[in-house]
Amino acid sequence: MDEKLVQRLESAVARLELLSAGGSSGGGDAAAAAAIDPSVIAFEEFMEKYVGRVMSGAKKIGGQVEDVTKVLEQAFSVQKELLIKIKQSQKPDMAGLVEFLKPLNEVIIKANAMTEGRRSDFFNHLKSVADSISALAWIAYTGKDCGMSMPIAHVEESWQMAEFYNNKVLVEYRNKDPNHVEWAKALKELYVPGLRDYVKVHYPLGPVWSATGKTVASAPAPPKAPTSKAPAPPPPPPASLFTSEAPQPSSSRPKVGMSAVFQEISSGMPVTSGLRKVTDDMKTKNRADRAGVVAANEKSSRGTTSSSFSKAAPPKLELQMGRKWVVEYQIGKKNLVIDDCDAKQTVYIFGCKDSVLQIQGKVNNITIDKCTKMGVVFKDVVAACEIVNCNGVEVQCQGSAPTISVDNTGGCQLYLSKDSLGASITTAKSSEINVLVPGVGAGDDWGEHALPQQFVHAYKDGQFVTTPVSHSGG
Fold first, then answer.
1. Are 214 and 146 in contact (CB under 8 A)?
2. What CA–CA distance (Å, rounded) separates 419 from 399?
3. Label partner for 455 (CA 20 to 30 A): which of 75, 159, 385, 469?
4. Which superkingdom, per the lineage (predicted)?
């Protein structure tokens, strides 16, 4: 008889024995019924087919690849146990959900920890697994207002993040070792179509909690400090990730402010020699104090704040969920840098003042929101660079950018490279927009072009015709 068929029969017998052993106790019946639920059985078959194939390929390689694949197998086993518990539990509140998913969080932290420290020869294998495990967070979906994509989309997006490193494995070992190629292909099929199709069939709208099951307990609250009439002292100011020393202009031509910084960046001089890089331990997904696949749905309060910058808000420069770089409330920092990025990530810059950020790589999208006297230098952007609600900003594209949009902004200098001269620039409710383009020759000065901010609307032939106002020096 086929070995797999025997294993399935033995599994079915074990479930029946569990069901009969439950007797008349409600808890036993619920546990047994959950274990033989069709979605749980389907997940076991899915693991046997896809996780088993990845594990088989890892054993042929051994070493760190086998170790990280065992962590992957552990993560899927934890998810199976959580699916069984969901069948027996009522839908918890956010605090209860975080506690419920704690075992899965711990495995994710364990996988991320294997990518830290000195890079090994199998770094791409480790990153492929560590980044892909975040796909299992689909189980945390609680509705359209929970702050994450729907389960199917979440699985696909998480794999896209990991595929960057998985493709590196395929390219590196294509003509060297077929075992690595087999492992990488099996890892991809585990998520697409494997996990994606499973979620699509059984949980397209998220987990289905029991209406009559037990209540999920939240984590115990920390003991309250003794009350005192005196107000608590303010927290110490956050330590900056960067030094406050600004690079000096390299040209003798008198320039001040952002123009001096941009001139040095464009000169090719080693202006980044004093920068501190964002290391793995600084990233949100690798920080133990901020790790987790589930976070409370934090509503933004930016719309209610005044135009002045809040001194209480701590500065941020971190990668969230492996997909979004967040740069917030950086004040007077002229040497911020992001150098570990890829084309699937986005950059969101908010509430910064009198600072300069360099993005040393291709990213998908850049948004600059509510910044003053901010300079941003980037190489390539896949989608667009958006500047909204800003005042006195300077943005330089050193590579290509298909679209640049400026909205509700006063005073904006755009520096375009030769590769970005074909960019589509859209402006709305903005003033003092200047675009600087490189000269024809290598030593020629930049050419400056002011974009119109006044328009004439004339009614002609049954419709309004809009033309920009041209000014003369007469």
1. no
2. 6
3. 385
4. Eukaryota
Cα 368 to Cα 350: distance, rounded to the nearest angstrom: 6
Task: Kindly list the distances between the CA atom of residue 122 and the CA atoms of 169, 315, 430, 455, in Å, as whole numbers in the listed order.
Answer: 9, 34, 50, 59
Cα–Cα distance for residue pair 82/265, rounded to 1 Å: 51
* 3-class state of residue 251 by DSSP: coil
**Smallest Cα–Cα separation from 403: which of 366, 358, 362?**
366
303: tokens are 């719309």
> For residues 297 and 142, what is the distance between their CA atoms, to the nearest angstrom?
11
In contact, 434 and 413? CB cutoff 8 Å: yes
Task: Give this prediction's pTM.
Answer: 0.47
Which residues contact residue 23 at a Cβ distance below 8 angstroms, ignoring those fewer than 6 apart?
Answer: none
And the tokens for 104?
A: 């899965």
Residue with tokens 């087919």: 49
Residue 163: half-sphere exposure toward Cβ, Cα within 13 Å: 16
DSSP string across 332-384 = S-S-EEE-S--TT-EEEEES-EEEEEEEEEEEEEEEEES-EEEEEEEEEEEEE
By C-alpha distance, which of 355, 358, 323, 321 is closest to 339?
Answer: 358
Length of the chain in terms of residues written: 474
| pLDDT at residue number 368 | 95
